[in-house]
Amino acid sequence: MDFGPWLARQLKQSGLSQADLGERIGMTRAAVSAWITGRATPRAETIAKIADALGTDLGTIHTRTADTMSGLPVTWYHRPGYADGGRDFGNAAAFAFEADVEVLAREATQNSLDERLDRNQPVRVRYTLHELTGETLARFREEIRWDELLPHYQAAASQEQKVGRVIAAGLRDMYERDRLVLLRVDDYNASGLTGDDYETGRFAAVVRRQLDSHKSVSGAGGSYGLGKATLWATSRLGLVLINSTLSEPHEGRTERRLIGRLDLPWREVDGRPCAGPAWFGRPDPDADSTDVARSWWADEEKVARLHLTRESDEPGTSFLIVGAHDVASLVDPDLEKNGTEDDDSVHRMHKRLVQALGRNFWAAMTVGETRRPLLEASVRTLRNGAEIIEEERVDPRAEQPARTRALQAFLDGTTVERLTESGQVAMAAVTLDVPPPTGRKEKVEHRAVLLVTEADDVGKPNQVVMMRGNRMTVRTGRVGDLPVGTNPFHAVLLAGHAAGEEALGADEAEAFLRTSEPPEHNKWGQTEELRLLYSPSAYRRIAKLTTDTNRAVRELVAVPRVKQSKGSERLRKKLTLGGKRALRPVGPPALPTLEELDAFVDENGAWCVTGEVRIPSGGDDSRPAPVAKLDVRSGPRPVLGWSDLVGVHNCEVVDGSIHFVPGARKATFRGTTDVSTHPVKAVFTGLIVELGTDKAGQA
Questions:
Q1: Dihedral angle at the C-alpha atoms of 285, 290, 291, 292, nearest 10 degrees?
Q2: Nearest 5 degrees, angle CA 264-CA 93-CA 524?
């Protein structure tokens, strides 16, 4: 930073005028003014006097990378209670999401993707779990001026409402167990929190405002400005500290711009009502109230003591969630066995973060032969500064191997029209008729890209995953009405910019689909914004897109089976159609028979069965009940229970019995066995499926 602007800043923060400084160093006000405006430069001996007057050293003045310590001290500013007596008992935006590290990973990583700076390089996101105990915890509390915060926490925790109970639990956990979990989210090759502390910009949108998205690209994932609230929702103490390296200078600086924000409910401390939020910063001499805190430029030592040191000067932001927890998720039984069943276990949170990043952003992390990924992500875990789980880079091929293969084939241009060999990826186009925004007449035709490949990995098969420009998974749905005997598959639909920057109608499709997403960004459908910007019936185009996508998938997979491997053939030999074929009756109508049976063992060890039933004339009144049994050499066959049994085509399942559509001649049902009823693992058994009788005695 140039000497003149830097000196002016130090005088403002110290509350000194140019005349005051001149008097302290034996110079005139005019001389000081000349230095500030750049018309003159002080001599070496004068610089030493300025250092003494400002209470700093010569190094600080020569480098000018930090403010002097003679400025106003870093402290907490609590927003005063509303003059009209109104009270807010928490940040409503935080209640839009669960306090779940999976939700946090989805929202925070999406925001980093949206702010990718160099579009030819990936944005790098690192999640760091850091457990503080003992002396390390005590030093951290001292750095955040805990003694000043404690009365506010106690006042908030004493209130009988939701946020107060969460805070009380956080305080109890920290004091009883002498432990505090920090979760830091760092991104690199991102814009950073640029802009003024208060005026429109990235900084104000994140730190000062609610429902301000301030996205800079048309293909951004977020549009509500709610995603940032997950940072505070994940903190039991409602506290997040921020260190940002800016892509655009602010006040002549780019590195170590710090601020803290605390979200508490209304409270009264020492007779003074506080509205809710508080900020950790340096008092702003330009504000109407001298108590208002703004961001400040910290030195490297201060950043290190706050556990906010960034690994490089590459632009981006570090968010430190103080008191991170994962209360919304279920306890992992594997970790229970290891004695770490508490919902704040850093081991468990590490595992769930890796899984969440892989599940939601595998496509953004996929790389082609000549294409860089959009995202690189990793997770590491520390305890008191020492690494206890080494940094784990999320590999999309490990989390989603088949779908990653499909996207790689698209990026490399190696797709085929039909699946004829193992490992191939078939591609087809699906048309989305993008309706015109209100006030326009012309619609736009967008050709989304559909990819299909065999499901040779774990996970739920026969599903289509949908996404748009930032390649975050938005919607996952099962493809119904599949022909019996269809090989398990995975399908991916790329819409908007995900179909290619040059794809026809990509911009229009991106804008349309973005407005159709709710705050959770987990589906496409009717939203208030969609209804206002487009016609009230615009959502029907999305329903048609889903229908057309499923139809295109069925066309791609409805091909004769290729010669299967020995392993697949052995699995088929384990399947048996139970019961004898019914002969054509002379008197009463013939009974339905099981004509085709297809099954595989899923990742949970359950048999997943699809059966096709032939219904003779008059047999549609029958109510057969599918029964799954293990194929044994002797003795009675063990009967397996169903965890799921549904009708797929021309039938429905009611209380375990199949009810056919009147007049139907064929029907299809699908079932999954209950693993808890398996006497042995499914991979070691054969399976027989019979059409038994229902409770009324009918076949």
A1: -50
A2: 160
pLDDT tens digits, 121-162: 999 999 999 999 999 999 999 999 999 999 999 999 988 787
Token pair belonging to 560: 């004769």
> Which pair of structure tokens corresponds to residue 391?
């940094």
CA-to-CA distance for 88 and 433, rounded, in angstroms? 44
CA distance linking residue 30 with residue 437, whole number of Å? 60
Instruction: Please state, in angstroms and rounded to a whole number, the distance separating the CA atoms of residues 497 and 503.
Output: 7
Q: CA nearest 74: which of 276, 293, 240, 244? A: 293
CA–chain centroid gap for 46, Å, is 55
Does an H or E element contain 130, and which? strand 123-133
Q: What backbone phi and psi angles, to 5 degrees, belong to 236?
A: -65, -20
For residues 87 and 83, what is the distance between their CA atoms, to the nearest angstrom? 10
- The identity of residue 494, as a single letter, is L
> CA geometry: angle at 629 spanning 624 and 630, to 5°?
165
Residues 6+ apart with CB under 8 A from 120: 372
Residue 227: per-residue pLDDT: 65
Q: What pTM did the predictor assign?
A: 0.72
At a CB cut-off of 8 Å and minimum separation 6, what does 572 contact? 564
Cα–Cα distances in angstroms (integers) from residue 63 to residues 67, 300, 301, 302, 371, in the given order: 10, 13, 15, 17, 41
End-to-end, the C-alpha distance of the chain in Å comes to 87
User: Are 680 and 631 spatial neighbours (Cβ–Cβ below 8 Å)?
Assistant: no
Neighbours of 259 (CB within 10 A): 24
Give 64 or 546, the one with higher predicted confidence. 546
Computed on alpha carbons and rounded to an integer, the radius of gyration of the chain in Å comes to 32
Of the candidates 380, 282, 273, 264, the one whose C-alpha atom is nearest the C-alpha of residue 323 is 264
Both tokens of 416, joined, read 């085929």
The answer to whether residues 557 and 652 touch, using CB atoms and an 8 Å cutoff, is: no
Q: Does pLDDT of 19 surpass 90?
A: yes
SS3 626: strand
Residue with tokens 């981006």: 316
Statement: residue 340 has pLDDT above 50: no
CB 544 within 8 A of CB 655: no
Query: What is the average pLDDT value for the chain, to the nearest integer?
Result: 84
What is the bridge-based pairing of β-strands 386-393 and 444-454?
unpaired
Alpha carbon separation from 208 to 152, 276, 277, 666 (Å, rounded): 20, 13, 9, 62
Cβ count near 145 (within 10 Å): 15
Alpha carbon of residue 13 to chain centroid:
40
Distance separating alpha carbons of residues 356 and 349, to the nearest angstrom: 10
Q: List Cβ neighbours of 473 (8 Å cut-off, separation of 6 or more).
A: 359, 360, 361, 362, 363, 465, 466, 467
Rounded Cα gap, residues 628 and 389, in angstroms:
44
Tell me the CA distances in angstroms from 340 to 331, 345, 350, 384, one per residue in order: 10, 6, 13, 18
- Exposed e or buried b per residue across 159-193, where buried means at least 16 C-beta atoms within 10 angstroms of its C-beta: beeebbebbbebbebbeeeebbbbbbbbbbbbbbb
Q: What is the percent of the chain with per-residue pLDDT over 70, rounded to a whole number?
A: 85
Q: What DSSP character marks residue 211? A: S
| Residue 22 C-beta-side C-alpha neighbours within 13 Å | 13
What dihedral do alpha carbons 234, 237, 238, 242 form, nearest 10°? -90
Give DSSP secondary structure letters for 306-359.
TT---SSSSSEEEEEEEEE--TTSPPPHHHHHTT--STT-HHHHHHHHHHHHHH
- Going by their DSSP bridges, the two strands 272-283 and 75-80 should be labelled as antiparallel
The Cα–Cα gap between 117 and 111 comes to 12
